[in-house]
Every structure is written in structure tokens, then in C-alpha cells.
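Budget justification note: compute hours in this period were largely spent on complex prediction jobs such as the one shown. Inputs:
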Amino acid sequence: MADNLTGRGANWEARRRQIIDTSAHVFAQGGYHGTGIAELCEANDLGKGALYHYIGSKEALLVAITDLVMDEVIAGVDRVAPGTGTPTERLRMLGTEYLDILVRYPDHVWVLLHEFPALTGERATEFHKRRHIFESAVETIIRDGVKAGELRKVEPRVAALAWLGMHNHAYLWLRPGGKWSARDVATQFADLFIEGATA
Amino acid sequence: MADNLTGRGANWEARRRQIIDTSAHVFAQGGYHGTGIAELCEANDLGKGALYHYIGSKEALLVAITDLVMDEVIAGVDRVAPGTGTPTERLRMLGTEYLDILVRYPDHVWVLLHEFPALTGERATEFHKRRHIFESAVETIIRDGVKAGELRKVEPRVAALAWLGMHNHAYLWLRPGGKWSARDVATQFADLFIEGATA
DNA sequence: GATCCGCTGTACCGATCGGTACAGTAACTA
DNA sequence: TAGTTACTGTACCGATCGGTACAGCGGATC
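Corresponding output:
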């Protein structure tokens, strides 16, 4: 009997995941278009035949990398649903969740944020849909904060973009085992965003 | 007699600049590695011979695009030198300067922020040197603000990275003729960063 | 009118691009 | 042991890559 839907064994799944992770690292170094199939083969210590047996195509590999991150992001958004605290509390939680993903998957996130324009067709629309879920979650929380009188009358869209910019940008410098932990930085970001930097 | 140092006429200079701008737009659409020379030729309505007469090489074109932006950024930093106001005033000024550049050169900035890892050798080191000038200018202003008691005891490096993230990220959505002007957004960003979002 | 020179298109280069075909191989099953 | 199946390396595909060589063009200069 088939023990999964793909018709492939568990080994296949595990090896595929391994290839995705390794390739994410290579893409993060040289970029998607800048990295050739030959380079991926070498990094994964595989021939082209074997590689394509697992990945299907170069773009499918890119999709797998981005999906991995977006799955986590969407799960994070769900965990910070309405009713799990005040708007500012939820904003703090979401920031922590997001930076945690960023530290756990630095290469995958790098690829996601840098190369998503290379996605085509429905892969692209699917990605944009999920990104919109995340971004509008932030905006909605801020809007709720303003409505509740917890935040002053900021422009929710601009404030959300500021928040997203602060956090997204961390993919360039926040590293596991670095000087600051994801939790540290998330707290400092939240303090800055909510309280400001004024003495 | 030679009327300039390059030995090329003024027409050459003007046409070159035009090619740089057009190519920046193409790169911003398809990425540096994702765009072929043939595509650049078509966009500029030029043969390969003519194109190379002006640009020298593909990477030289990338350098020209990034230099154009960095020249402006460094000039902006110089204009906000110490003694031109309090730290918070200078931070507001720098934000306005930066977002203004971002709106005036949306394509060039896109290329800069996305493709600078493609720079090699001393072109790369030169770029990093100039980027460091900008980033440490932000950090120094914040440090001065804390020292002067104008800002609370934030971690200057993290706060600077938050500030840079907010502003850098705007290259993805801030557009000339869009809903918000660079000045509007700069003010809102500065208010958020300095005063926070709390009511 | 001859000469010169900035500029331009065309033809071409070797290398690499992403991807496919297929023959093998090793391990497991009947 | 015969057959099956998942896996893998090799050879190869046409297309495109970034870049070069060069002949020719037109307009300015003498």
C-alpha cells in the first residue's frame, strides 16, 4: 500500500528536503539567476539526473524554498489571531515570531526576499496572496490599536510598512549565534515602534 | 584640444547617462543576472557594438548605476554634518534626504539594493566602504542623541538598523506620483522612530 | 575631394545555460 | 533467481550567455 500521496518513499522526502536546504544556501550566496544547475549539483554532490529526480526544475526548487518560509509565516499569523491579547501585545508577538523564522531559516528567507520576482505564473500569484495575508495582518493590528485608542492616529498603511521594513531588513544582519538573539531584537524593535526612541 | 578628461565628447557622456538610466529600469524588472546583453540592446535600441562602446562591460554598467546613487547618498550625509542641528533634527533631515533619493532614482536604488552582491573585487570593497559611511552616520547620530540625553538608552547599532530597515524597505513601494510623497513618509517615519506609535 | 574619426551593426567566439534521454545499478520482492 | 522499482551518472540537446573583431557608415576637418 502507498504510505503517502506522492508515491515516493520517506527517504525521497528527506533527501529532497536536504537538497532544498543546501540549495537555499547556494542561492543565498550567488542569487537565483546567478547560480547554475551545475553549481547546485556540486553543492549537493549529485549528478544532474539525480538532482532533477528530486527537484523537477530550477523554479520548482525556488518555489519549495519560498513555500517553506511562507508556511511558517502564515502559521505565525494564525497564532497571533484576534483575541490573543491587546493590539500592541499581538504586534510584539508577531515580531518575535517573524524574527524567529528569520533566524531559523536565514538562507531561505534571503532567497525569498531577494528572488521572489523570479516566480512566474500562478506560483507568483499564490506567493503574493500569502504575502498579502501577512502584511495586512500587521496593518490590521495597527488599525485595531488606533481604533482602541491604544495607538495614536498613525497612517496604518505607512506604519505597517515601517514595521515590515524594520523586520524584513533584519535578514541582512540577524544571524543565529550572533551578538543579538531574535527575541532581544524583537523586543527592541517593538519598544522602538511603540514607545519611540525619545528619552 | 580635449574638452574633457575622458577624451569623449559631451554627446557621448549624455548618451551614456541615458543608457545607464534605461538599463537600470530593465535591471529593476528582471534582475542583473536575469537580464541578458541582448535585452539591454533592445531596450536601448542599440547593437552590441554600440552598447559596448558606451558601457565597456555589463559589470561596469552595474557599477555606474550604483555609483550614481551612492554619490547622492554620500552628498546627503555630508549635508547633515554635525553642527547642523540637534541629533533628532539631523536624523529627520537625513531621512528626508534619503527618501528623496529613493523617489528620484527608484530603478537605480532597486538595482543597488538588490544586486550589489554581484559586484566583485575592488568595486565591491569601494561600495562597502561608502555604504559603511552612510550606515555609521545614522548610528553616530543616534549615539549622539543618547549621549545628549535627547534619546533614551537604546542600543545604537540595533536602533540604526531599525531606522535603515524602515527607510531602505521603502524602495519597494514608495513611488514618485504615488499616494504619499517622500517628505510625507519621511516625517511619519521620523515621528514613529522618535516619538513611537503610542497614544 | 581626401582624410579622419566617432559611432554602429553584423558576424562570430567559446562557454555555459536549463533541461532531457537513457542506460545502468543496487536493493528489495515474489 | 527473475523481475521490479527507485535512484543516479553520462552524454547530449538547442539556446543563450557575455564579449570581441571588424568593416562600414556619416559627418566634420583640412
